[in-house]
Amino acid sequence: MVRCFPAIPPRAEFACILELEVSVMAYKINPDVCVSCGVCKENCPVECIKETDGKMVINPDECVDCGTCAANCPVNAIDPA
Ligand code: SF4
Ligand code: SF4
Predict the structure, then answer these.
(1) Residue with the nearest Cα to atom 1 of ligand 1?
(2) What CATH number does the domain containing 65 carry?
(3) 59 and which of 32, 34, 48, 49 could share a cystine (Cβ 3.0–4.6 Å)?
């Protein structure tokens, strides 16, 4: 079990654990920078990047935070959310 602070009561500790879990988020594409080249979509190992209205969007529920898309984006449009 992940413990945020050993001296806090169990209920507060549980709340802290929940906060840690929701703070882990997927990578995100900046639509103002993306030029829709498709490189990220082609290289995502779990195929969680879809094209919507001409822009690429990462499904945060499927992204495994590998960073491949960000490393290969030619215009640096992808960052950890
Ligand atoms: S690689 Fe970058 S520029 Fe190309 S579609 Fe993905 S986010 Fe957009
Ligand atoms: S970080 Fe990895 S899993 Fe998430 S969208 Fe980018 S390539 Fe796909």
Answers:
(1) 73
(2) 3.30.70.20
(3) 48
CA-CA distances (angstroms) from residue 34 to 25, 55, 66, 79? 20, 7, 19, 12
Q: What is the mean pLDDT of each run of 10 residues along the chain (81 residues)?
A: 48 48 74 96 98 92 97 97 86
Q: What is the pTM for the complete model shown?
A: 0.74
| Count of domains forming the chain | 1
C-alpha dihedral (24, 30, 31, 36), degrees to nearest 10 = -100
Cβ atoms of 69 and 56 closer than 8 Å: no
Considering the domain boundaries, does residue 12 fall inside one?
no
